[in-house]
Structure formats: structure tokens, C-alpha cells
Design brief:
The protein is α+β, with helices and mostly antiparallel strands. It has one domain: Aminopeptidase. A four-stranded antiparallel beta sheet has the order 1-2-3-4, with helices on both faces. Helix 1 crosses helix 2. The protein is globular. The model has no long low-confidence stretch (mean pLDDT 95).
Length: 149
């Protein structure tokens, strides 16, 4: 894959269906259960609910959505990478951008079943600060924190 072709851009709703498709596939693979919300509700969430508190960026390769991250200066709400494009540095590039504009401290939640995500975050300087929070999926999760050193 040509890394230099990847670009990070602010979310635009013209990418809504691609983004939600990718997000659902990635999440399903990560946690082993079907998405509980309908596709339409998911698109609505992405276009209307998420942007109220978070900036959303996409990673694109030739106009194909290969990653999404939703964040503000204190928190990462969502980070999903296309199942065919994992492990090649896309998540790291998105994370580096978010770290650079953060308050110097970021928190996030990930599912306990998602061991790949845990390895990824721990490799990039996040530490566990809590376990077992409420979520719609009814799965135990882990809270992570990154502090700028």
C-alpha cells in the first residue's frame, strides 16, 4: 500500500455511508457482536449527534474511507480502522494528530474483549485508569488515559 496516498481530512457527510459501513465492520470484528443500531440511526449519530461534542476526522486513501476518529481536546470518543487496512500505521497517524491538539491529557474507553485495541493504545502511551463502565453493548470495558510527558 502506498502510505503517502493516505490523507487525513475533516469529516464530510458525503462520506457518511462509507464511514458507517467501515465503522460497523471494524467494530463487529473487534467485539464479535452485531451493531445494535440500524444503519440509518448510525448515520444520523455520525452526522448530527457526534459532531456536537467532537471533531471528526477521516483517513482516506484514494477517496476510500480507511479510518475515522472522533475527539476533542480531552477525550477520544471513537477510533475505527478499516478491517483491510489495520496494522499499517493509519491509527497511529490519526492518534498523533489528536495528541498534538489535545490539552496534554486524553481519556478513552475500549472494550475488554478488544485486545488489539488495548495493545495499540498501550503501545502509544495510554495507561489503564479504570474498568467496567456502562455501555449499550453491555460489555465490560477499560478506561485509558494518555498524559503528555
Amino acid at each position: 500500500m502506498n502510505q503517502h496516498k493516505m490523507k487525513i481530512t475533516q469529516y464530510n457527510s458525503k462520506y457518511a455511508e462509507q464511514t458507517v459501513d467501515m465503522w460497523r465492520d471494524s467494530k463487529e470484528q473487534a467485539i464479535g457482536q452485531k451493531e445494535i443500531h440500524s444503519f440509518e440511526n448510525h448515520v444520523y449519530f455520525l452526522d448530527h449527534i457526534l459532531p456536537e461534542q467532537f471533531q471528526i476526522d477521516l483517513a482516506l486513501i484514494d477517496e476510500k474511507v480507511v479510518g475515522v476518529i472522533a475527539y476533542n481536546e480531552r477525550e477520544i470518543s471513537q477510533l475505527y480502522i478499516h478491517v483491510d487496512y489495520q496494522g499499517i500505521g493509519i491509527g497511529q497517524k490519526l492518534l498523533d494528530k489528536v495528541k498534538a491538539q489535545s490539552s496534554g491529557r486524553l481519556t478513552l474507553y475500549t472494550f475488554e474483549v478488544n485486545e488489539n485495541a488495548q495493545r495499540f493504545y498501550e503501545k502509544h502511551g495510554f495507561e489503564v485508569i479504570g474498568r467496567g463502565h456502562e455501555n449499550e453493548e453491555k460489555l465490560p470495558d477499560i478506561q485509558y488515559e494518555w498524559i503528555f510527558q
